[in-house]
């Protein structure tokens, strides 16, 4: 994959486009190093590994590599003079840009989901003892330390606690002879890696939402009799709820804890800050509680 010629000025938006003009190729999807791909293949190259499976693994990584070299669908809709600094602002002007970007992430996630589904189907005899041992392991690195090289074990340490637990649970179900549950858990894992745990992608989506709010506010201000403070209150709340609706959380409190820093930053940038951090957190928490009750009704 091509690398940006301006590596010292990279931003999370560089994960969308890189190249000589910093906007040539879609790099939203993280590239898989070739040596890692070869390591994974070599681990499966044994007398019991079906040739079809090895071919599928190679095909999957080749398809993924091709994705990283292909322009995002939104690229052709952007002005030629767009820069990293103005990218989110310009994307906010494009209808459904956030949906398009999400669909491209999910397309990549599905490549690995489909690969895992095939691997799950290769296991015909469940091993309850092995599944139990893996379920009780302190970590994935600890569970596989005797079977995998250190370079591969390092991948597990890069996973968040939530992602690692999903992946470990998927493997436990796979070994225990529960393919349906294993496939579902791995689907959640891949989607989390490409969507929820993808910091660059999430930051870009948040910036687009922020600019959408600015655009909407500008429209509202053109209407006669619009109260400025009321409008900014609504804009701040709509921004918070848009973040809450786009991500899965266990409960409103967890959502408030994780999202409040971004919401507080947005409120300050629009010159309409909360009176205090405590007041701001409680306000956001009440918004999420109300939204959660509305969803459950």
Give a concise summary.
With 297 residues, the protein is mostly helical. 66% of the residues lie in helices and 1% in strands.
Range of strand content: under 5%
* Percent range of helical residues: 55-70%
* Continuous helix count: 13
CA gyration radius, whole angstroms? 22 Å
The number of domains is 2
How far apart are the termini?
Answer: 48 Å
Give the neighbour order of strands across the main sheet.
1-2
Mean pLDDT: 75
Spell the H/E element sequence: EEHHHHHHHHHHHHH
**Low-confidence region ranges:** 1-36
Choose one word for the global shape: globular
User: How does the major sheet shape up?
Assistant: 2 strands, antiparallel
Number of strands: 2
Structural class: mainly alpha
Secondary structure topology:
Layout: E1 17-18, E2 25-26, H1 34-44, H2 51-68, H3 87-92, H4 97-122, H5 128-135, H6 140-144, H7 150-157, H8 161-175, H9 179-196, H10 199-221, H11 228-246, H12 252-269, H13 277-296
Antiparallel strand pairs: 1-2
Structure notes:
With 297 residues, the chain is an all-alpha fold. The protein has two domains: 7-196, no CATH class; 227-296. It contains 13 helices and two strands, in the order E-E-H-H-H-H-H-H-H-H-H-H-H-H-H. A two-stranded antiparallel ribbon has the order 1-2. Helix 4 runs antiparallel to helix 9 (179-196). The protein is globular, with a radius of gyration of 22 Å. Residues 213-235 are annotated as: Disordered.
């Amino acid at each position: 994959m091509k690398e940006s010629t301006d590596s010292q000025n990279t931003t999370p938006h560089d994960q969308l486009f890189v190249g000589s003009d910093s906007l040539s190729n879609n790099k939203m999807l993280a590239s898989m190093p070739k040596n890692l791909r070869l390591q994974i293949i070599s681990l499966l190259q044994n007398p019991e590994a079906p040739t079809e499976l090895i071919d599928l693994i190679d095909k999957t990584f080749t398809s993924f590599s091709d994705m990283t070299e292909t322009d995002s669908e939104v690229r052709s809709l952007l002005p030629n003079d767009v820069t990293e600094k103005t990218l989110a602002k310009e994307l906010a002007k494009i209808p459904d840009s956030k949906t398009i970007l999400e669909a491209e992430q999910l397309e990549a996630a599905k490549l690995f989901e489909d690969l895992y589904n095939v691997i799950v189907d290769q296991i015909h005899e469940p091993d309850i003892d092995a599944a139990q041992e893996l379920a009780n392991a302190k970590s994935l690195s600890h569970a596989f330390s005797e079977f995998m090289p250190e370079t591969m074990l390092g991948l597990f340490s890069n996973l968040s606690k939530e992602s690692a637990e999903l992946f470990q649970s998927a493997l436990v179900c796979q070994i225990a002879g529960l393919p349906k549950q294993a496939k579902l858990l791995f689907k959640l894992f891949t989607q989390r890696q490409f969507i929820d745990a993808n910091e660059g992608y999430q930051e870009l989506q948040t910036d687009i939402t922020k600019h959408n709010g600015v655009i909407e506010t500008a429209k509202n201000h053109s209407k006669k009799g619009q109260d400025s403070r009321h409008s900014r209150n609504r804009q701040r709340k709509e921004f918070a709820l848009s973040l809450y609706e786009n991500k899965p959380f266990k409960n409103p409190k967890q959502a408030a804890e994780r999202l409040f820093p971004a919401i507080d930053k947005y409120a300050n940038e629009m010159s309409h800050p909360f009176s205090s951090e405590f007041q701001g957190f409680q306000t956001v928490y009440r918004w999420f509680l109300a939204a959660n009750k509305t969803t459950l009704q």
